[in-house]
Specification:
254 residues; alpha/beta; Rossmann fold; 2 domains; five-stranded parallel beta sheet; 12 helices; 58% helix; 11% strand
C-alpha cells in the first residue's frame, strides 16, 4: 500500500491537483461513521472537476481581454431608473448567445453601457464561453501595427469566439484607414457563423457613415448587426460625473 507522500507524488504526476489539494480533508471525512466508499470517491472526483472548471474560467478570463470582473450586483440601477433594465437582465441569461443574436447599446457617456457589456461578458466566461473583449479604437490602432501573419491569427481568434464585445465604437471621431473594412469583415463573418456581438457606442447609428467615411459600408455593417439584434438605449445622468462629485465632496469634508 502506498504511503500518503507516495500517493501525493502520483497525483502530481497525473496532474490531479484538485484531488491532491483536498485529499487530507477527504481522508479524515471518510473516517467518520457510515461513510460509504462511493460517497467519498464521488467527493474526490468533484474536487478535481471543480478545480479544473475554476482553472478553465480563469484562463478564459485572462485570454478575453477584460480588465475587470464586473457584475450586475455592483451596478446602481436606481441612479438612472429609465435604463432598459429588463432587457439587460435578459441578455445576462446568455440566451442571445445560444440564438446567435447581437446587442447594440447606445447612449450618452457615463450611463453604464460598458459596465453592462463587461458584466455580460464575464457572466459568459463563468458559463465557459470563449469571449473576446476589445476597446475598439485601441484595437483598430494596435491591429494596424501587426504583421500580416499576426493580423490573420488575431482575426481568426476574434471571429471564432462565442461572444465578441466591441466597446466604445467610434469613441474617437477619426479611425485608421483600414478600420472600416476590418469592422465590416468582423461583423460579416460572425453574422455568417451566427456568433454574437455586443457593441457599445456613444454615437447614434445614423452618424456611423460619417465616422466610417462610407455610407454604403455603414449600411452593410448595420444591416447584419441589427438583424436579430437587441437595441438598448441608455439615457440619463453620468455615473462618472456622480462619482467625481462624491469624491470632491469627500475631499472638501476632510
Amino acid at each position: 500500500m502506498m504511503t500518503m507522500p507516495e500517493i501525493e507524488r502520483c497525483l502530481r504526476q497525473l496532474r490531479l491537483s484538485g484531488v491532491r489539494d483536498t485529499l487530507q480533508t477527504r481522508v479524515l471525512q471518510a473516517q467518520g461513521p457510515n461513510q460509504p466508499f462511493l460517497k467519498t470517491f464521488s467527493l474526490i472526483l468533484q474536487d478535481e472537476l471543480d478545480r479544473r472548471q475554476s482553472r478553465l474560467i480563469e484562463r478564459r478570463y485572462r485570454q478575453s481581454g477584460l480588465d475587470e470582473k464586473l457584475t450586475f450586483a455592483e451596478f446602481d440601477w436606481s441612479f438612472n431608473p429609465k435604463l432598459p433594465r429588463q432587457t439587460c437582465f435578459q441578455l445576462h441569461t446568455l440566451a442571445f448567445i445560444a440564438a446567435g443574436e447581437n446587442a447594440l447599446l447606445v447612449g450618452k457617456p457615463g450611463t453604464g453601457k460598458s459596465h453592462i457589456a463587461k458584466a455580460i461578458a464575464y457572466q459568459a466566461i463563468l458559463q465557459s464561453h470563449k469571449v473576446e473583449y476589445l476597446e475598439t479604437d485601441d484595437f483598430f490602432h494596435r491591429y494596424a501595427l501587426n504583421s500580416p501573419a499576426q493580423r490573420e491569427a488575431r482575426l481568426r481568434t476574434i471571429i471564432d469566439c462565442d461572444l465578441l464585445v466591441l466597446d466604445d465604437l467610434f469613441l474617437a471621431r477619426a479611425i485608421p484607414d483600414d478600420a472600416g473594412a476590418l469592422l465590416q469583415t468582423l461583423i460579416y463573418q460572425r453574422y455568417t457563423l451566427h456568433r454574437s456581438v455586443i457593441v457599445t457606442s456613444n454615437r447614434v447609428v445614423q452618424d456611423w457613415g460619417t465616422y466610417l467615411g462610407d455610407n454604403t459600408m455603414s449600411t452593410t455593417i448595420l444591416d447584419r448587426l441589427m438583424h436579430h439584434c437587441h437595441l438598448l438605449e441608455f439615457d440619463g445622468r453620468s455615473y462618472r460625473l456622480k462619482e467625481a462629485a462624491e469624491a470632491a465632496r469627500e475631499t472638501m469634508s476632510n
